[in-house]
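In this section we walk through a basic example: taking a raw amino acid sequence and producing a predicted 3D structure, encoded as discrete structure tokens. The instruction is simple. Fold the sequence below.
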Amino acid sequence: MISTHGLQYAYPDGPAFTFSDVSVPSGATLLVRGKSGAGKSTWLSLLAGLRTPDEGEITVAGQVLGELSGPARDRWRASNVGFLPQKLHLSDALTVRRNLELVFYAAGVPVNAKALRHAVDLLGVAHLAGRRPSQLSGGEAQRVGLARSILMQPKVIFADEPTASLDDDAATAGLRLLQGCAAECEATLVIATHDRRLREAMPGALVYYLSTAMADRQDVPA
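The resulting token sequence is shown next.
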């Protein structure tokens, strides 16, 4: 389902990362661990097709990302990947419903009212459809972001530090929502986190550990 080989990425005038190879089977859960600055968000954005590696090959959901041009990659991502970033990037110029409808436009398909209704019902945010993002609490916004990530029944869900700012109860609830959404979509779940609580709550998850040297790997078959 997910595999990388020889992956490297360098920011202009910034850090350069070399990532060890990884292979994750379909339907598995992977925790990407490491301290701040170890490259968790960078690795996640590479696999989601939001960045292009300088070297290496990435395959996600059977697609070699290097074979896709920019626009084709955007369409592929919209149709196959659910992404829950640290910053949700919801447009305050639009209502919650309109923000969610953007997913269908990005994928180049008509708005699927049934799928939209199912997602907002599943995440308990149907009553927020007419509000602007600035009118949402942090927890409500995260639920809307998660609803957005599953609208297209993705094959993979990526979440970047989803529990970093949450207390224990909220973190437990957020993790259950993530797991429930992945199960609903039969999707592989990948969570980048430095939150030890997630590792303790998910003892069966695979773990991909990034050290500051970007060369360590634990518990993940290569």
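Looking at the output, two observations stand out. DSSP finds seven helices and ten strands in the chain. The beta strands are 2-10, 16-19, 22-24, 29-33, 55-60, 63-64, 81-84, 156-160, 188-192, 206-209. In the next section we compare this with other chains.
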